[in-house]
Amino acid sequence: MELRHLRYFIAVAEELHFTKAAQRLHIAQPPLSQQLQQLEAEIGVKLFHRKTKRQVQLTEAGKVFLQEAYGLLQQLETAVALTQRIGKGQTGQLRIGFTSLAIYDLLPLILREFRQQFLEVELVLLELTTSQQEQALKDSRIHLGFAHPPLVDNTLSYSCIQSESLVVALPSTHSLAQKEHISVESLLSEPLIMFPRYLAPGLYDLVMGLFQKGDFKPHIVQEAIQMQTIIGLVSAQIGVAIVPFSLHNLQRSGVVYRFIVGQVPVIETALIWQQDSLTAIAENFLQFTQKFIDENLQI
After folding, report:
1. Could you tell me which of 183, 195, 170 has the C-alpha nearest to residue 256?
2. Fewest 10 Å CB contacts: which of 65, 226, 245, 255?
């Protein structure tokens, strides 16, 4: 049994006339009759009562088969439509990795707009460090990631979507809080709150590089894993911290952010992916993100 048998059967069942059905199907009447005879032979029951050579009536079995044929074709149309939407990246699941830094500025803006345009896409978000995202891409646990170059795996593709300077976060009661710009030298005697290097080696090296330029050694008194924890410790006056500019969006009572004097290194946020395993949804997300950046942000 083929799909054309079902379509031929439905046409005759609705028209109850071979000639009219043949005209509707744009085929000759004799082949139509022959196809329906083959269908009845395969099923093993009569589907039509032949009133004349051209006019017919459905048997009871034919009436039941008509309803089932409608259902089968509807299922096929649904399957085809779903397959087309998936092929075009309009529905399905998209797994995205992100670092904690991305959530303070860039990521919420992109996700909000993307969800409005791709309502049938299920977003699964995983907070991972840059190195963890690289491994997750290898293992196909995520489709894309928001990470911070440099990358260890040079087989991965990436596109820088934002660059931001480092700033100093310090207690609002601190004497340096009265200045708009702070020199690195003025931080030498200050207790510094840092994060472990293994979590974000690129950012860690940028911060330490600020001190190494002047052959200074920072006074690190505390390490914390989460950026919000670091800012919380600054609020508690445990020390000061050097963080990306986007952290100023994390408004915390008792904390102010000040720019650093001189040439300050920037930290990049990049969208990373595995080119040979890119899905249609992931491709749509890449194109959407690039368009969003071009229209709303400047690197």
Report:
1. 170
2. 226
